[in-house]
Amino acid sequence: MSQVLVAATGRTHGSRPSGRLRREGSVPGVLYGNGLETTSLEVDWPSLRRALNDGGAAAAPVNLRVNGVDHVTIIKEIQRHPVRRDVLHVDFMAIDPDVILRSVLPVVLTGTEELSPSTLARLALVCATLEVDAKPAAMPLEIPIAAETVLTAGVVRVRDLQMPAGSVIVANGATVVASAGAADADADGVDEA
Q1: What is the pLDDT of residues 47-99, one digit of tens each?
Q2: 105 within 8 A of 132, measured Cβ to Cβ
């Protein structure tokens, strides 16, 4: 969260002014929450894109500077064009950096690049997302699981996952997150006929 995203206030409302903003390289948005009065704003698209790429997830905190004042925020909603997928509008929700948040994070299998297609086909991601409680600065972007661990263990449950300090998965420890099926008899490429 070292990067500061600077936002300008005082934008004109309506579809035509918003379209003009987008053509000029800005994205209309709004800041609300944490006792703040709702504020219409605009952010530079390249800076917003960098913040999204650096953060990786909507749960990642974004430092937003509005009228010289920094706010710790999360991106609550991004509206996109249905065909072009351009960002049309972004909602920033101000948060207290000392309060624990609950976010839905993606579960990601890592180390799959080295695996053969037949071995990769044995892996099943049972939970694509999990809820995590953490303060904004401690919130991970994703929950990684090494494919080799799944293949070795056969089943990986919530209780088997190692989370960064200050973050906790909100699920029953016995919940299966990933599993590996049995190897096919023909997986070695030998024809049994």
Answers
A1: 888 877 765 555 678 889 998 999 998 888 888 888 988 888 899 999 998 99
A2: yes
Look at residue 106 and give its three-state secondary structure.
strand
d(CA 113, CA 134): 30
List b or e across 140-155, with b for residues whose CB sees 16 or more CB atoms inside 10 angstroms: bbbbebebebbbeeee
Quickly count: other Cβ atoms within 10 Å of residue 107's Cβ: 19
Strand order in the sheet with 129-134: 143-146, 101-110, 129-134, 167-169
Instruction: Please list the residue range(s) of the chain that carry CATH number 2.40.240.10.
Output: 4-94
pTM here is 0.71
Homologous superfamily of 4-94? Ribosomal Protein L25; Chain P (2.40.240.10)
For 101-180, which CATH superfamily applies? Ribosomal protein L25, C-terminal domain (2.170.120.20)
